[in-house]
Amino acid sequence: MKLAINGGTPVRKEIFPAYKVIGNEEKEAVNRVLDSGILSKFLGSWKPDFYGGPEVQQFEKEWAEFYGVKHAISVNSNTSGLFSAIGAIGIEPGDEVIVSAYTMSASAIAPLVYNGIPVFADIEPDYFCLDVNSIEKKITKRTKAIVVVDIFGLPYDVEKINALAKKYNLYVIEDCAQAPFSHYKSKLAGTFGDIGVFSLNYHKHIHSGEGGVVVTNNDELAERVRLIRNHAEAVVEAKGETNLINMIGFNYRMTEVEAAIGRCQLKKLRPLVEERQKNVEYLHSQLKDIPALTLPKIRENCTHSFYVDAIKFDMSVAGISRESYINAVKAELAGTGLREDEGPLIGIGYVKPLYLQPLYQKQIAYGSKQFPFNSPYCESKLEYSKGTCPVVEEMHEKRLFTHELMRPGMEKKDLDDVARAFWKVWESKTELEK
Description:
This protein is of the alpha/beta class. The chain has 15 helices and 13 strands. The two termini are about 15 Å apart.
């Protein structure tokens, strides 16, 4: 059967179902807020409304109860949550924070907001989270924290990394943007570090358009996150706050409308994740016999919430490159509703290793004098060159591809079309070899 990339008939021309999780509950909640006339109630001063309006406070209460934590603090994005978390733990100029090179850029940029230094560690070749051995090699006397990322939906190596952090007296900040309702043993991801951060951006498992949540069981860290969220510098005197480190505040506040939507979405989180897991299980059962594909491994005692399905490709087995194979698969499939202009939701690699971005290559963050990289505060030799994280580079350049064609809304017939596309290209790969 001639491949579509060579002019043949594609497996599927019909657009795949949209991932659409907003329903009547959210519409009613938004109307309730609109009817109240209170779209936001935050004040950047030490008054009762410093903590926001009724929807925000109720959303935070419900999130804390769902996750079994003492504190949940709403913010306007996962990014601002990471920035607040880094500020709350007291990062100072020149303090080093170990971060992943294979994640969204904000996870690594957070230390720079406070003139800290991002130090990149490598990832696990099977799970793609930070590798504990690589982390330990990067620890110096200036290391203050580790930002772990539950990448693609799988929790990090909780026991080993937390033990390492305890050994060196480091904070652990868990970026759980991609792994809501993943578990390690009986505990939910996002609750394993000193601070956890979640995303409610529109392409996550659940969303409020934009938004995020910071969780912690530490009373002091929770209050410092709340201060940074809402104009700390204007509040500390009246509040009686004496620790002024990083008490330059921002406006990271969530609106009442977003909070109302978030409350509805939180109730849908479990079934939405379980449907992803069911779809992935079925799709993997159809793909498992393609010799060049290594399907995702799930860490022992963990569950995976599959933000994306991350699969490794072995060129030595296939006889063709990953790019040739995936481009041919994409030619067999259609786009997805609400994201039609993106084409089939399959990506080669994930993100370019972060240390290869211009920011790190030129070491320019604040001003033209390379601050804080080239300053008396930066005491370590910075490793941002090619080869810094070999596993990251191998995965990105040669092995990994991801797809989103398993989201809720995809039915068995849709998953069958995805599997047929992968198999069609595999069985006709001699066309690509030529």
